[in-house]
Amino acid sequence: MTVSHRVDIQRVAAEAASGVPGVAALQPALADRLALAASRAHQALTAGAAPHPEAAGIRCEHTPSDRWFVEVRCILHADQRVVDVARQVRDDVRNAVLAYLSQQCPSDRVTVVVTVTRTL
User: Fold this and answer.
1) Is the pLDDT of residue 49 over 50?
2) To 5 degrees, how large is the angle CA 38–CA 53–CA 76?
3) What is the mean pLDDT of residues 62-90?
4) Which homologous superfamily does the CATH classification assign to the domain defined by 3-47+57-119?
């Protein structure tokens, strides 16, 4: 799988997760925050470089067994039942990624893990 597939899957997963009622935001991991900070510093030094796409809250890997592993880290609204929103995020992200992959490589399988980092 190419890097562009990974970026597309991150985008598809982020759109699906963000669209679930009760999701306040996606929570970037520490590595994402550090990469974004380093990217911004590099852009400031090189002025005019293309921005680094931020994949906040989504991490994905393609395993040797043709499986995609997608982790979604999200912040939820406090007035929602966490387990229900997390299940909906998992289902919506899985369906969106499978729909994307069906156009690219239909044999792939998807595992989605949702981590709720906090509520607002």
Assistant:
1) no
2) 95
3) 94
4) Cation efflux protein, cytoplasmic domain (3.30.70.1350)
